[in-house]
Amino acid sequence: MRFEDLKLIPPILKALKDKNYVEPTPIQGRAIPIILERQDVLGVAQTGTGKTAAFSIPIIQLIHQIESKQVGKPTMRALILTPTRELAIQIEESIKDYAKYTVVKQTVIFGGVKQYSQVQALRKGVHILVATPGRLLDLISQGIISLKTIKVFILDEADRMLDMGFINDIKRILPLLPQKRQSLFFSATMPNNIVKLSRDILKDPEKIEVSPVSSTAETIQQYLYYTNRTTKKNLLTHILKNEEIDQVLVFSRTKRGADRIVKDLKRKKISSAAIHGDKAQNQRQKALKQFKAGEIRVLVATDIAARGIDIDKLMYVINYDVPNIAETYVHRIGRSGRAGEDGVAIAICEPEENEYIRDIQKLIKKKIKVIDDHPYPQTDKPMTDAEKKEWNKEKQRRKQEFFSNRRKAKDSSKSPGRSNHRRR
C-alpha cells in the first residue's frame, strides 16, 4: 500500500513526498480512511507506530476541504489534547510539515512559559489547536479560547494522561466540547479506567489495534549488561567509548539521577544534557534542539520528559536505570527503531533491578542478549528485604540530617543586628 491509495489530496501527498514518506505504517493505513469517513476511532498503539500522522493527516485534509473556500480569520475546528509540552510541540511541528501546501493553520499551547505569544497566535486564528490540559483550561477561564466550533477532538496518550493525574482536567474539558463531533482516542495500553474514559468520549468507534505493548519492534536489537550500583557510571562511559554510538537517549529513573549522569559525562568530556520536569521549558527545548541537530551526543531524560521525543533515525537507547514496570521498558526502547528503522537498546542492570529484567523478559517473551565481556561485572548480591528496610531507614535519616544542618546553617547566617533592625 502507498499513500496514493488512501485517497489523500495532492497538497498532502506533495508534503509527504517532501518528507520521503512512501508507504503508510499499519496504523496509518487503517486509521486514515476511517477518519476521512468521519467515524470515531479507538486506537491502541504504542509510540513509534506513526500514530501522529495517522490522525493529523486526515484531519488536515478534512479541514482543508471545508476551509479552503472560506475567507477571513481561521476558525478552530480541531483540538488535540496531549499530556506533555514536548509531545505537544512535536505534534504541532508534524502538522506544520504535513499541512504546508494547504490552507490549514495550527498552533500549540502549553504551560511553563508566558502565555503572551500563544495568545497572539490564537487571536490571529487557527484551524488546529494542540494543547496540554492545564494551559488550555487556563486560557478558557480567561475567555481567550472557546471550544464551541470544534468538529474533531483527539485525545492522545490517554494512559499517560491518567498516569500524570490529568483525569479531572479532561472531565472539565469534555462538557465544553460540542456534543456533535468526531472523536479520536489513542492509548498505548487499555486498563479498565482507560476503557471507561474511552466510552465517555467515543460513539460507536472503530477499534484499531497495532503493536501491542507486550511486543518490541523486530528491528530493535536488545542487549543487557549486569553490573553493580557503584560501577554503573563507569560502565556507561565504557559503552560510550564505542564511537558508533554517535547519538544516544539515556533513561534515568529520577530527575536528580539525570542531572548526576550529565554532570559525570561532562566531567569525562562527553557532550550531554538532561531534560526533566524541573528544567525550565526553554532549557528543555534548547537541549532537544541541540540533540536533534547533533550538537550534543547524549540526551538524558526521565520517562515523562521523554514523551514526545521523536527523532528521525535515532538508533541508540540506554536504560541507565531499568524500569520497575515492564511496559515502561517497551515504551522507552520504542524511541529507537521507529517506523521500521534499525535500533539498539541497551540495559545497564544493578543487583536490585535483576527482578525487573525477569519481568521484562516475561512480558516481551524473549531473552535479552547478555554482554559479559566488560570490565565492570556484577559481583554484588541483591539486598534482602531486611537489608532494604534498613537501607531505606538510613537514607531517610541522612536526608533529615541534611535538611536539619541546612536549616541550622541558614539560621546562624542571619545577623542579629539586621533582624532587630527589621523588627523595628
Number of domains: 2
Spatial ordering of strands, largest sheet: 3-4-2-5-6-1-7
Q: Oligomeric status of the shown chains?
A: single chain
CATH domain fold name of the largest domain: Rossmann fold
Largest sheet: 7 strands, parallel
**CATH domain class of the largest domain:** Alpha Beta
Mean pLDDT: 87
Query: How big a fraction of the residues is strand?
Result: 5-15%
User: What is the distance, rounded to the nearest whole angstrom, between the alpha carbons of the first and last residues?
Assistant: 81 Å
Number of helices: 17
- CATH homologous superfamily designation of the largest domain: P-loop containing nucleotide triphosphate hydrolases
CATH architecture of the largest domain: 3-Layer(aba) Sandwich
Shape: globular
What structural class do you assign from the helix and strand content? alpha/beta
Parts with pLDDT < 50 across at least 5 consecutive residues: 418-424
Number of strands: 14
Radius of gyration: 24 Å
